[in-house]
Amino acid sequence: MRDNTFILPDHAQEGKRAKSVERSQFMLDEDALDLGKGKTYFIRTYGCAANVRDGETIAGLLEAMGFQRAADEKSADVLIFNTCAVRGTSEEHVFGEIGTLKPWKQQHPEKILALCGCMAQEESVVEAILKTYRQVDLVFGTHNLDALPRLLAKAMRGEKAIEVKSEQGGIVEDLPVNRSSVIKGFVNIAYGCDKFCTYCIVPYTRGKERSRLMPYILDEIRQFEQRGGKEVMLLGQNVNSWGKDLRIEDGFTKLLIAAAQTGIRRIRFDSSHPRDYSETTIDAMRDYENIMPSLHLAVQSGSDTVLQRMNRGYTIEHYKELFDTMKAKIPSMTFSTDLIVGFPQESDEEFQKTLDLVDYCRFDQVYSFIYSPREGTPAAAMEDDVPRHVKEERLQELNRHINHWAYENNQNYLNRTLEVLCEGPSKKRADVLAGYSREFKLVNFTGRNVKAGDIVQVKITGAKSFSLDGVAIE
């Protein structure tokens, strides 16, 4: 059913010593084709864009098997929790939700309750399901999405179906996908992570870094564009290290340029690591109009000593130099980042350096978090010695700085005209349209004869901290 031969493509001949990675094409077994006929499914997804993209693949697999999407989770024949394990609170929430479904499962024993995603890769979670949450019928991990048809058939026969690979699997191409948007699409370029930051569970739940081959990535972008797609987001835990496992020199820049040359209207990427940035990537972002001038560049802390404890592999001086270089070459560039407060041993002085960095960079958007230990990571063995009330006070102070600069930055767009990709009606007002500018600014606007998927010029008439208001130019 699969061809497991891996032939290095012409563009990667410079990488003949690349690591051997099993690669195969997906084929749905004929026995699974009608398994879902007359039945429905519902997927509840938690976490990051990678989880959302996994959810699209799971939906594609189910619909290839004949399932249709249910109107709500309680009416579904198959209910899947697609989970995140980055923070402990996420796991607690999922277990709480699964716990409330015990009566539902008892009333409908023929229905399937499944758990997948990063939580499924944790041994303690699987043990909890076997001992406590026995209403769960099916568990599969991040490394074996392609096994879903086989495992689901087993669960529908009334058998417990739990299969989680402890090691990362190969890369399976051509999995069916049901995209959540026809306008904007996620495209995986790599899986897993080799960085092993001390606080992060991702290398343990998603495995070591594996790059997809360039032809498959470009084909997916072209197919999406041919179906009316306007914007792709290239996904990877560290996108700018793409190709290193294939021994492709300056691989991400080469991939980014090739993606731009497909003709897709907009390209973004997430997430990038400061340690892996090359100046050629910055030049490509400057030189290609369809590579958007917005960047998520996670820093995590403004203190070098905290960064050392986090095993981030760069200094704040390096981060500032990279930031300044990008701003000098692409003045319109906007930045978002991640920041953690209350990491073990974080002093008042170290926290102040984080505030200083925010004031230096004036980020457009920041995802700020209170540190919480994740079992199995090196940081979990450190003494979590920053009191909870101190963490909360620091987060509030940090958010004051973040909100100040977000508001100040957005004032600079007043009376300017921005190019906006319309995504449809605003979530808050049906009579107002919404979309994102090239700079990744959320713009709520009015306009006649504008529909989802249109790229329009919008004059900005109002600016808040995290959104802009405007009017489409006829």
Describe what you observe in this structure.
α12 runs parallel beside α13. The protein contains 13 helices and 21 strands. The termini are far apart. The chain is globular, with a radius of gyration of 23 Å. α8 (about 250-260) links the parallel β12 (about 230-235) and β13 (about 265-270). It is an alpha/beta fold. Helices cover about 30% and strands about 20% of the residues. The strands form six sheets. The protein has a six-stranded parallel sheet, with helices on both faces.
Write the topology of this structure.
Elements: E1 23-25, E2 40-45, H1 49-64, E3 68-69, E4 78-83, H2 88-100, H3 102-107, E5 112-117, H4 123-131, E6 138-140, H5 148-156, E7 161-163, E8 171-173, E9 184-188, E10 190-191, H6 202-206, E11 210-211, H7 214-226, E12 231-235, H8 251-260, E13 266-270, H9 279-287, E14 294-296, H10 304-310, H11 316-329, E15 334-341, H12 348-361, E16 365-370, H13 388-411, E17 417-425, E18 433-437, E19 442-446, E20 455-463, E21 468-472
Parallel strand pairs: 1-8, 2-3, 2-4, 4-5, 5-6, 6-7, 9-12, 12-13, 14-15, 15-16, 19-21
Antiparallel strand pairs: 10-11, 17-18, 17-20, 18-19, 20-21
